């Protein structure tokens, strides 16, 4: 975010950096990072969420960098939705979206803000949405149903390092995510006694050869699922340590 500085402020910053040892306006050395604060579980209705602040946020939640003159703040939340998949696919996908608060970029017009949101969404999506990184435990019923993981992030304040803050918020929200435990529900179609499908016929062979051709099993297939209740509200994402963030 571009900030207009007065001549006095520019002179103060310049003299601080030229001093021995050089210091920033907030007392940090040129190579010191601003304090980083990470908080998880900030959205009770989400499957996983996190808030990350670098420096002092302008929304009233301050980190240790009090008086740093503004900071960067991002909130990320994960929501799991049931999604239908084709028979030739295992299922499961990660969908990313980045939104920017107009208060974080007051100097940008609405079209420019939309472009920035689109660019940041592409960056996050290229890192987290690749099929090879999709968690296997997002599959509910193979070839039929799976969880679609929607990762939504909001930038509330941008005072630099916004990509770093975005990545940390996404990472923390994914680590905080719990996938609901499910169990399959099978449907057993009755088979008439006189109808013996070839693919399900059981043949009881004794010492003298086949003894019966009418002993059959009822075919069953998984068609749906139901949630199981566990105290920990589900399981963690399987490949959460494989994401390059």
From TrEMBL:
UniProt subcellular location: Cytoplasm; Nucleus, Nucleolus
Domain Exoribonuclease phosphorolytic positions: 32-180
GO biological process: one example: U4 snRNA 3'-end processing
Main location: cytoplasm
Molecular function GO labels: mRNA 3'-UTR AU-rich region binding
InterPro entries listed in its UniProt record: ExoRNase_PH_dom1, Exosome_comp_Rrp42_subfam, PNPase/RNase_PH_dom_sf, Ribosomal_Su5_D2-typ_SF
Protein name, UniProt field: Ribosomal RNA-processing protein 42
């Amino acid at each position: 975010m571009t900030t207009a500085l007065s001549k006095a402020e520019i002179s103060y910053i310049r003299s601080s950096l030229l001093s021995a040892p050089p210091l920033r306006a907030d007392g940090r050395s040129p190579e010191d990072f601003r304090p980083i604060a990470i908080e998880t579980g900030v959205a009770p209705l989400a499957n996983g969420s996190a808030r990350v602040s670098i420096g002092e946020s302008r929304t009233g939640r301050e980190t240790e960098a009090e008086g740093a003159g503004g900071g960067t703040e991002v909130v990320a939340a994960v929501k799991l939705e049931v999604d239908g998949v084709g028979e030739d696919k295992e299922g499961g996908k990660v969908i990313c979206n980045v939104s920017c608060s107009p208060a974080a970029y007051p100097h940008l017009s609405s079209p420019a803000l939309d472009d920035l949101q689109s660019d940041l969404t592409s960056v996050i999506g290229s890192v987290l949405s690749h099929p090879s990184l999709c968690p296997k435990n997002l599959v509910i019923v193979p070839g039929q149903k799976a969880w679609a993981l929607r990762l939504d992030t909001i930038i509330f304040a941008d005072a630099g390092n916004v990509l770093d803050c975005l990545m940390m918020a996404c990472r923390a929200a994914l680590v905080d995510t719990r996938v609901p435990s499910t169990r399959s529900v099978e449907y057993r179609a009755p088979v008439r006694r006189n109808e013996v499908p070839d693919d399900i016929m059981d043949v009881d062979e004794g010492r003298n050869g086949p003894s019966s051709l009418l002993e059959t099993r009822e075919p069953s297939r998984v068609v749906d699922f139901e949630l199981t209740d566990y105290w920990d509200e589900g399981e963690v994402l399987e490949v959460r340590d494989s994401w390059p963030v």
